[in-house]
Amino acid sequence: MVLRALLVAIAVTAIGLAFSHARLLDWALAMGTWATWVVPSALLWLLLACAAGQGLARRWPAWVAPVQALAGAVAAALVWQLLDHWRLAPRPASWLAPALAGGALALLMVRTVRWRERARLPATAAAQLADLQTRIRPHFLFNTLNTAIALVQHDPRRAEEVLEDLAELFRATLGTLNRASTLAEEAELARRYLSIEELRFGARLTVRWDLDPNAASARLPTLALQPLVENAVRHGVEPAARGGTIEVRSRRRRDRVLLSVTNTVPLEAAPRPGHGIGLASVRERLRLLHDLDADVHSGIIEDGRWRVSLSLPAE
Length: 315
Known about the structure:
This protein is of the alpha+beta class. The protein folds into two domains: 2-126, no CATH class; 134-313, Heat Shock Protein 90 (2-Layer Sandwich). Helix content is 63%, strand content 14%.
């Protein structure tokens, strides 16, 4: 949002100056001068907009655009007056024109954000549909219930734990798709899922966890990690006669969190359909949550294993 606002403000200024400066050198000099006003004004507007925007949107949504435009006008006028006081403002030094320009640019940014939100609605619906397709599969439910039934006779406490894990998974599954979760919460759901699968596969399934505590607060869509580990079980462990290994790893790198799910690939098994559905859903829901600030990559790595890697903001 910050980068986009700065780019829009600079682009509009550059286009406007192009009409009044025929020579490239004159235009470049004018841009350098006007940038001393445009960039601070945009940053101040963003600060004011963030301070008032969330509460205003909840209580009086109709007032968001006018108040944001007013904030843009006030920010532009304040910065202009400061520059004029230090004799750095471009001439003429009247604050009225900059205030009008700042208000217009702020209104343009608000409208642009709304257009983007409306354009996302079809993508949101598609992501929700894909997510429904990747919800916990019926065969997993039946296998889990059969496992619990088998445990009731000789290990009733373990059977109870299995059913509790299953209940938690379905509680998350039936929750809202738009709610954000944390990496710590997602890891707990994935642990519950893999705990059930470890009973089913026994020694054929090896799970390695390597989670960075500093990455625990990173925001993820609800049920973003569980489909990835389920894919790893379904395509990396289940088809292999000797089973396989799944590794879940997270690291914090300054303001970024790197999350990966890696699984061995069975050489003797034919490719199974459906691997990309859950991954596409996770990718789309991450984009809806973090916009362009999240990346998802997948593929075979050097040692022949399959890895899905997520990069997202740390906070």
